[in-house]
Amino acid sequence: MRGVDPGVRLDYTVVRGWRAVRLRRHGRAANAHRAIGRRGACRQPNGHKAVHDVERAWFRLAVAAGAIVLTAAGARARSPGDPVRLVWQEGDVSGVTGIYGPQGGEPIGTVEYHQTRRGDLLTCVRVARYRDGTEDEDEGVARVAGTLEAVSGHSVVRGPGGEPTAEVTIDVAGGRLQGAWGSGTDRQTMDRQLALPRGTYWGPLIFLVVKNFDANAEGDRLVFRTVAPSPRPVVLDMELVRGGDAKVERAGTTLETHRLELRLTVHWAVDPLIHLVLPPATFYMLPGDPPALARFAGPRNYARQPIRIE
Predict the structure, then answer these.
(1) Are 59 and 102 in the same domain?
(2) pLDDT average per 10 residues of sequence, the chain (310 residues)
(3) Among residues 221, 232, 226, which one has the least CA distance to residue 192?
(4) pTM to 2 decimals?
(5) Which of 61, 83, 131, 219 could potentially form a cystine with 147 if both were Cys, beta carbons 3.0 to 4.6 Å apart?
(6) Which residue range is the domain that position 242 belongs to?
(7) Which helix (H) or strand (E) segment is 62 a member of?
(8) Residue 23, SS3?
(9) What would you report as the CA-atom Rg of the chain, rounded to the nearest whole angstrom?
(10) Residue 224 domain-assigned?
(11) Which of 28, 52, 73 lies at the terminal end of a domain, its last residue?
């Protein structure tokens, strides 16, 4: 079921999945029917009967929705951790572009990007430097033999003096997640053994997902797993959602683009509330082979400073 994070329950404390909950509920309903067959009429209190009626109604709705999806798609749904299929060939790339405030004007920083490929191993490094002396750096290493399979990486946010204020080291192949946040006596660390799927993307790897959106989206959405400093490292599910067409004014020229919105997804019941609090980041894409980025507009990092990259 799209929009459900298999690693997070609604109370965000215990690993659970929608499938497990659904089957467990189904199991209770089946046990109740067997009990009725053995003992005759069910003598449960009215409150219990109402609960089971609601559960059966939800189960029937889920089955009906699943049947519709299977009929339309003819294949199993993508899991957020499934690797993204690559349509466009990746190679060596480098460049520098400006960072602006949400209203444009004078640049407030620059982004330097380097991408190198050695065999099937792609290394992407993105460093954003701001005029106030702060810096965001992201590195992602992935295999690119037909699909985008994350291997390892590192993200760090540095303050004006160059001291890291939040950082995370990701080892997908080794199943390890390390992090540190805070400064001085308030600095905290973590080191966890954690199985991350190959379809886990962060930093510059996310743009490769954006670039290959059309080949992997189910309807108008594509869900993937990510790791981000918040400032404590967290594992989340994000979704890219197709928006409408948009005109982008840049250097006196009007560009015809289409929008892709990047936003957090937890569960369909709470996602609308989350999206009210956490506005999406938006990629304005130029059509082409491959598509190209015309503008990014969204929060810089967990501090939510709005920026524009062109």
Answers:
(1) no
(2) 40 35 44 46 45 45 38 57 96 96 93 97 98 96 97 96 94 96 93 96 96 95 95 95 93 92 93 86 95 94 87
(3) 232
(4) 0.74
(5) 83
(6) 84-309
(7) helix 46-73
(8) helix
(9) 23
(10) yes
(11) 73
